[in-house]
Design goal:
heterodimer; A: ABC transporter involved in vitamin B12 uptake, BtuC; two-stranded antiparallel sheet; B: mainly alpha; two-stranded antiparallel ribbon; 2 strands
Chain lengths: 330, 365
């Protein structure tokens, strides 16, 4: 009845963009920056990659693509696009000390608009009949999986049947987790998020840490957008298709109580919850599906409340989250 | 001679600027942003930027009808911004206006659908109003309750509440869909107009505009001159100061957010029963988030918000016109809005801080 072997891979593929997004946001938040621009950044990451590969596919004009370039060009474009967004955010909030919530929301407006505008322009350039840009050749490289995965039965389907970006997401999350908890830069980063004044007094360069953490976080989140278009959506960009996943990634940050390694499983759980309604038989009551779609948000809310009720110190958000740091203001 | 290392730039907080300098800096930033937008437009589309801006103004104010639509959009955005302002003044980062408005709309639509034609119209409107106020208030109360008692992060809480409201609306839209299977409600009570707010002066949008105009005045007085307004400012400055002064912080937080949510709910009702007469999940259309920026850009001053919301609405309406005239994508508006916001947000720095360059001490000392 409940087809678990087909459910899990879909949940994982649904969860991977969220994993990228939440890992990026956790790094950012650990530096004390609450970046509500993540949804916008993920759009920019996605569209930058699409633009890159669109022009690459156009330039070779029907010839088979060079595998390395087909992957490298969209990756580099995507990383650069989201890096730029991260820099804008940092410049405004760290250097100019603007309000983080407002800056983040403006970034999301800008980023989503940027994605849809250039998406729309490409659609016009491509002269397509449908309102989308399709890059099947590039996507084929991104979603290539191990050739023998299909022969391994359910094991292959559940564990080996993904494009390389999905594994990269897991690796990045593990690395981020290791970095935060086991290394000196990680310790410094956390101290910047907890008490920038104290960190500053201890000789840590607060500005540099905030910049680097936020920009790297943005780049990781941008890859989530790239994964969505190139692998999950099979290289088809259509406007607004990415939807609210960026906000879901921010929800995941709370859900995992700021732990990238927990996020690996949690993002898959969220991915599962996101598509659960497709697998639950509801008969003629289509409306119930809408209530299932509420689950990720309700669960996040419950976790948020429980964490604040328990008041365990290691579960709290970084103490200076959302506040700009100004050394002279004591 | 001892050498002292001095940074190239030093930044200091400055005293409050006189209001005209303050507005000069902001105006300058907007002007700079518009020039920048013009250049971007030219580079992206190859169009003459002057032509683009002319079309932008035509889109917002070109015809009588356009002016009315602009005014209605302005009223709704301003209404939501007014609603979130008391909470922001208290440094309560409510980004859940989207959900609070939508849940108000849902409550109103629910009354119109289930009670339409069963009770007199006046009573129905009254009940819808009450339901919307209560629904919005509940959506404001929940995050405030947890924030006040357990310091639960309100930004994230209200963000989640948005989606819960959205899915609830999606659920009921399918329950009430007309015709079955369409996934839409369509116009509610189209034949009887039950629960529709009356059209005054022959203008469909006039009532909304008047209500919000009154609300603007009331909110200004409430924040500026009432005891509640004063308490809100004190709690915003420091919870400790507030409790030393005998203000019950918990109560102020909850009361303010209930008020905030209730006004959002009322705006939701205006959307459903005065203009749209239907319910969709995208009814609020991101204005709950835009309102955060409107309120903040005006430094939480209701009068200033008229101008900031006007700026954003004109951009939005104008960019719609641009996109249809020059067959550009509609999202062009969002890009322009984003750029202008970045400039205004950035300009705030120069209002609050001064930058000194390192002085060259060549004369030697």
């Amino acid at each position: 009845m409940f087809d678990i072997v087909s459910f899990i891979p879909r949940a994982v593929m649904q969860g991977t963009p969220l994993l990228f997004g939440s890992t990026g946001e956790i790094l950012t938040e650990k530096s004390g920056n609450l970046n509500l621009g993540i949804p916008g950044i993920m759009y920019v990451g996605a569209i930058s990659g699409v633009i890159g590969s669109f022009f690459y596919e156009q330039s070779v004009a029907g010839q088979p693509l060079n595998g390395f370039l087909a992957i490298a060009i969209p990756m580099v474009c995507s990383l650069l696009g989201s890096l730029l967004m991260g820099l804008i955010y940092c410049f405004l909030t760290v250097t100019l000390r603007a309000n983080q919530n407002v800056t983040g929301l403006a970034m999301t407006t800008f980023g989503v608009g940027f994605g849809n505008f250039f998406g729309g322009s490409l659609i016009k350039l491509a002269n397509a009949d449908v309102p989308s840009v399709a890059l099947p050749a590039t996507s084929a490289f991104f979603s290539k999986h191990l050739p023998f995965a299909a022969n391994l039965g359910w094991f292959g389907k559940i564990f080996l049947n993904y494009g390389f970006l999905a594994y990269l997401a897991v690796i990045i999350a593990l690395l981020a987790s290791y970095m935060l908890n086991r290394t000196r830069p990680g310790l410094h980063l956390r101290s910047v998020g907890e008490g920038p004044a104290t960190a500053d007094a201890a000789g840590i360069n607060v500005t540099a840490y905030k910049y680097i953490a936020t920009c790297v976080g943005s780049m990781i989140a941008g890859l989530g957008g790239l994964y969505y278009v190139m692998d999950y959506a099979c290289g088809v960009w259509s406007n607004n298709a990415f939807g609210d996943r960026g906000w879901l990634a921010i929800a995941l940050v709370i859900f995992t109580i700021w732990r990238p390694n927990v996020s690996i499983l949690a993002s898959m759980l969220f991915g599962g919850l996101y598509i659960l309604y497709l697998y639950i038989p509801t008969g003629s009551h289509m409306e119930v599906k809408e209530l299932y779609k509420m689950l990720p948000y309700v669960i996040t809310l419950v976790v948020l409340i429980i964490v604040s009720l328990r008041k365990k110190r290691e579960d709290q958000p970084p103490a200076s989250l959302g506040l700009s740091y100004f050394r002279e203001e004591r | 001679m001892e050498k002292q290392k001095q940074p190239l730039l030093s930044i200091a907080k400055r005293e409050a600027l006189p209001w005209y300098k303050n507005w000069l800096i902001r105006g300058g930033a907007i002007l700079l942003a518009l020039v920048f937008c013009g250049i971007i437009t030219m580079l992206l589309t190859g169009l003459n930027p002057v032509e683009v801006f002319r079309t932008l103004f035509y889109g917002a104010f070109g015809t009588n009808r356009k002016i009315w639509v602009t005014a209605q959009n302005l009223a709704i955005l301003l209404g939501i911004s007014l609603a979130v302002t008391p909470a922001f003044k208290m440094r309560f980062w409510n980004i859940g206006a989207e959900g609070q408005v939508l849940i108000g709309s849902l409550a109103c639509a629910a009354c119109m659908i289930t009670l339409g034609d069963k009770i007199p119209n006046g009573l129905l409107i009254l009940i819808s109003l009450l339901a919307s106020l209560l629904a919005g208030a509940l959506w404001g109360f929940l995050p405030a309750f947890f924030k006040a008692h357990w310091e639960t992060n309100e930004t994230l809480f209200t963000l989640m509440m948005n989606y819960i409201a959205m899915q609830l609306a999606a659920y009921f839209i399918i329950v009430w869909e007309v015709p079955k299977g369409s996934g839409k409600i369509g116009v509610i009570n189209q034949s009887t107009n039950a629960g529709w707010l009356p059209v005054i002066g022959g203008q469909r949008y006039l009532l909304t505009i008047l209500v919000i105009a009154i609300l603007t005045g009331v909110m200004y007085i409430y924040l500026q001159y009432s005891k509640h307004g004063y308490e809100i400012s004190v709690v915003g400055e420091s919870h400790r100061t507030a409790s030393y002064a005998g203000i019950k912080v918990t109560r102020v937080i909850i009361r303010t957010m209930v008020l905030s949510g209730a006004i959002c709910g009322m705006v939701g009702m205006l959307l459903v029963s005065a203009t749209d007469h239907t319910l969709t999940t995208t009814l609020v259309d991101g204005r709950g988030f835009t309102a955060v920026m409107v309120s903040w850009l005006a430094k939480f001053n209701p009068i200033g918000m008229i101008f900031t919301s006007l700026l954003l609405v004109v951009l939005e309406r104008g960019a719609t016109e641009i996109s249809s005239v020059f067959s550009l994508n509609h999202s062009f508006a969002d890009i322009l809005t984003g750029i202008i916001l970045f400039f205004i947000i950035g300009s705030d720095f120069f209002v609050n801080y001064t930058v000194h360059f390192r002085k060259n001490r060549k004369e030697g000392k």
